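So, read this over?
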Amino acid sequence: MNQQFNLTPVALELAQSTLHEHSFDQLLATVERVIPSDASALLVVQGEQLKPLAIKGLMPDSLGRRFKIAEHPRLKAICSASHALQFAHDCPLPDPYDGLLLAKTGDIPVHACLGLPLYDKNALLGVLTFDSLNANAFSSISTDTLSTLQTLCSAHFKTALELAHYKHHAQHSSALVQELTRDALTRDGGEIIGQSPVIKTLKNEIKLVAASNFSVLVLGETGVGKELVARNIHLNSARKDQPLIHLNCASLPENLAESEFFGHAKGAFTGALNARQGKFQLADGGTLFLDEIGELPLAMQSKLLRVLQSGEIQTVGEDTPKYVDVRVVAATNRDLKHEVAQGRFRADLYHRLSVYPITVPPLNEREHDITLLAGYFIEQTARKLGIKQLKLSTEAQALLNQYSWPGNVRELEHVISRSALKAKQSQWQNPIVSITSEHCDLTPQLSNTVQVNTQKTIHTACNQPLKQAVESLQFTVITEQLKQHNYNWAATARVLELDRANLVRLAKRLGIEVKKTI
């Protein structure tokens, strides 16, 4: 028998939560009161893929995944529907969340699945999905209730997206709208994945300096994503429709460096059979990214000063100067101030390049971002290897979060690729391939933050009675594991090999705030 719901309280709650900082989480939580489930998700349409904005009951790395609509039949069906779509409990179509439910490991058994497409007139904005291990969980909800709920959620979602858009242009602070309004940032390798405070600061700095024409010097360790930062500076600037040209200074032969930068005329030197434009001419009107600028020979450094100051270049083999309008973004993993002090880098060039320096944080300082990045790389790797569903075990997530990542994001990407290949080989008959800690081939090394906290705890414990020292250690371990698992008590309990109820009771006794997850 279909059940009618009074949706007036839902409408009021959605209206009040529109301006809420976490409006997408609020939307999901509000709808869950009408459609309770074991797992739910709110996803936004980005071109040909869906990006999760809020989840409940799914593995934390789900937020880092990007679901290609064409590759997931159920999501494709929901996106093609005009009204709520409920799948039969014995529907043979694979579920995109197989293996990702916190309440269940492995294939999802016979279960209920419901999807709500969210529209603005005829334009699909996103979808709401609900999965329940109870095969009849959604059968009692009437068509009228679902239709009204779809209308309310669509209106709320549209308003939330528009407000985020306006906030972005007013405060240069919304990473979401960057993805919604610029198609280039939705492509593989174009999006900065992360929600840690240092990454939020980095994104804000990118948006701030992108609005200017200042030269930018991007600093950071190898593998942190300096080229990605340069790309985002360009794509957030007024030059985004103009070319972004890349030049690796470390690979330039010294005798050809000037030609690479400024071009050459036909016959300018032996082998110059045709005239050739340099990188500055190619980047005219756009941005030139000078990677590994610290490797540039001193002789060539002086020749960059004029173009940085006035835009004037001298093509090799020609007498008449030319003028270009180019924004320069340079990057290096060297300490250029030290290089200047040692006489290996020109001070005047350093100051012209570093009008606005940006430092990209290493991965071990990006709290909670490792799980999101792992989810992003897992989805990419699964596509490349032809794996139907690839997941990361809880133990493997813990291992990744405990490793120090000297190679930063690039090393994480390579570890995921290698681990997926090993997991596929050992589980080639399974529809769901799970990466375990054994596949990762990593030695746990605590990150800098965890090492400092652990050292402080040990130092404090040594000066306490035994009972108090044990409780201090328990407090630290439980708190760190909760942070790593986004305050998911079930996942934390599994890692600590405790019953969930016992863990919650112990946490209360130790004074750890018991947060409720949405």
Summary: The CA atoms of residues 188 and 380 lie 8 Å apart. The longest helix spans residues 143-171.
